[in-house]
Amino acid sequence: ISYMSLLSKEKPLTVVVEGPILHISESTGGKKRKSGSFWPITFPIEKGVALDGEVLYRLKAGSLHSRKVKALFTREGDRFSFQADAGEYTFTPAASEVPFGGRAAIAVSGKGREFQIRRLVVEGTEFVIKADGKLRNPARPVLELNAVFNFQAGRIARFLNIPFDWEGRAEGRGRLETKG
């Protein structure tokens, strides 16, 4: 069998990558990508697995560094699912010198430009946030997110640079909605 026949549109592939490192930066107004497929590969990937990965994501709001990342992507027709677990992450906000970190996990499924966020968990030593919801049209996002949170009140005071100390825990639920 030839290598080129493996890459035909009729034969879906399973791809396993060990130790990938992904660097992402928020766009700073450079060239815009042509509309079309996000993934410029012409052959179908039915399943993708990443083991022991690392993601560095630079945003205007700060930087995120995830380590020990395990991810699974599956696709069947125009439906997909994606799950990832970051064994460790550190977020350093641009407006604060106080980084925080912990573990994070996400499970998403979707079709076309509609995504169902089945599970989003971000936890650290002083907080836990759990959420689920929907995301439509990633180019101009419309987000509906339901969240439950529990955190040390002192952590949020430090994060917001409030000039006094808070003690105890704060917990609650909320809904975040954005319009594209």
Please provide a written account of the structure.
Strand 8 and strand 9 (142-152) form a beta hairpin. The protein is mostly beta strands and 180 residues long. 5% of the residues are buried. The chain has helices spanning 3-6, 153-159; strands spanning 13-18, 21-25, 45-59, 62-76, 79-93, 100-111, 114-124, 127-136, 142-152, 169-177. Helix content is 6%, strand content 61%. It contains two helices and ten strands. Strands 1, 2, 3, 4, 5, 6, 7, 8, 9 and 10 form a ten-stranded mixed β-sheet that branches.
**From the helix content, strand content and strand pairing, which structural class follows?**
mainly beta
Largest sheet at a glance?
A: 10 strands, mixed
> Helical element count?
2
Mean pLDDT: 84
Q: Write down how many β-strands occur, each being a DSSP E stretch of 2 or more residues.
A: 10
